[in-house]
Design a protein that fits this description.
By secondary structure, this protein is of the alpha/beta class. The protein has two domains: 286 residues, Aldehyde Dehydrogenase, Chain A, domain 1 (3-Layer(aba) Sandwich), CATH 3.40.605.10; 194 residues, 3-Layer(aba) Sandwich (Aldehyde Dehydrogenase, Chain A, domain 2). The chain has 17 helices and 22 strands. The strands form six sheets. Strands 14-15-16-13-12-18-19 form a seven-stranded mixed β-sheet, sandwiched between helices. Strands 9-8-7-10-11-21 form a six-stranded mixed β-sheet, sandwiched between helices. Strand 18, helix 16 and strand 19 form a beta-alpha-beta unit. The N and C termini lie far apart (79 Å). The chain binds ligand TXE. The site of ligand TXE has 24 residues, from helix 9 and helix 10. Ligand TXE binds next to helix 9 and helix 10.
Length: 499
Amino acid sequence: MTSAVSEAIDGVRDVLSRAGDSVVVGGKPGPSATGEVIDTLDPATGEVVASIAAGTAADVDRAVAAATRGLRSWQELSAAARARVLYDIAALIEEHAEQLATLETLDNGKPLTESIFLDVGIAAEVWRYYAGWCTKISGQTLPVSPPVGSSFTYTRREALGVVGLIVPWNFPLLITSWKLAPALAAGNSVVLKPSEMTSLSALRLMELIDEAGMPPGVVNMVTGYGPDAGQALIEHPDVAKISFTGSTATGQRIVAASAASLKKLTLELGGKSANIVFPDADLENAAQGALTGIFLNQGQVCCAGSRLYVHRSVHDDMLAALESAARGIELGHGLADGTEMGPLISAAQRDRVEGYLQAGTEQGATLVCGGERPGGELAAGSFLTPAVFSGVRDDMRIAREEIFGPVLSVFAFDDESEVVGRANGSDFGLAAGVWTSDIKRAHRVAHQLQAGTVWINQYNMLDPAAPFGGYKASGYGRDLGEESLLGFTQTKSVWVSLD
Ligand code: TXE
């Protein structure tokens, strides 16, 4: 480990030393009811960096009870006062950007520059965006018909109550912010369950939320394993909604559990996104977009452009450019200078990805480069060199299943309608990319693609104002934008007799 890395870790030691108190109930951080802990590892070295509380159903019960009490104090504040708290949270995130980014990189492995600009930078903007919404949530007056003039009728957008937010490990602070900020802006109280692998930035965020003057009990957190803390939250009768980002299997469990109390759900369940390069595209930009589309965050991105469809006339040149760029990507500790790609989240995730590399080769695809465990200093971490497959068929497992790692599948295509059909021939529908200089084709194809987001001549763009979520098996409901905010509200029609 270089001295720069050790120094960066030393800079967050005080936060790490508080990690055991990661169950936050009624504004008070503490251990779990059982006192059990979960070790959190630096995926670049395999070393334990902290131990977080392993919460269980008893902690979730306490947290939901605190959130039920906290709801009133949050709703008693004026909309402007609630907005001020959210604006202050945004400012505190920016003020502590380096510390939060260091925690994120240490926990997740991603390069520090990604943590600073993408995770922490966009998280602050998300808080600011939803802070603005607090004072703009309004109902409508309705032109009801008979009996004419006898009633005045209007709608109110009301909070749901206590909501449960379950967050994965790939963008811990960012996805927490995606869910928490709109839930609060809409007037709900919250129980947050971060991933057991990456709870450190949430731990620090809870402290900043407290510093911003959030009334106790409005935001509660239970860290712990999915089948313990998570399952208790999704089954809790007093939780009105679950907003979840994670695997399809867990999403299906949440749907089943929601039946008992008819919880409202927002589910973002990953994808297998197609990125389509037409021959009239700016090929240099397209190659760059294809690379960041798949290798950002080590490929552990729900909207990763993991299926790259390249027109046959430019396929070989594009493949050569991708191979050479992929071979040049610098792997290293996320906190080290010059690192372009960090380790995967865990050894188990790397094993999973390696299973797909093997399946791809066995089913007849050609591994052009990558897919190796680097040696030397990196051998102790869960690193994998960026991999590119060519000669992939649409029916192969690597073309159909979410790999969630740095593995790109490249396909050749011949014409537009063929490629649209193949791009849509997936169970998922989270995102897609289109690279072309033909404006008519760009929009025509974007309209035909079955995906919640389509990027034209760019990839992985996100903004708090733009809704994000999936078609088909990629889930339902939306994060971000006004739609996410409204998903944390319910509409009441009020009828007043004028007779
Ligand atoms: O996800 P899980 P995992 C996909 C990706 C990845 C695979 C497995 O393909 O390889 O899922 O990842 C909580 N009740 N995505 O196993 O288990 C868990 O504690 C309630 C795509 O880590 O779904 C964590 O907080 N909660 C994805 C969260 O669910 C439960 C991002 C996500 O973990 C639970 C992550 C239960 N029974 C993985 N079991 C994306 N859409 O971006 C687990 N959890």
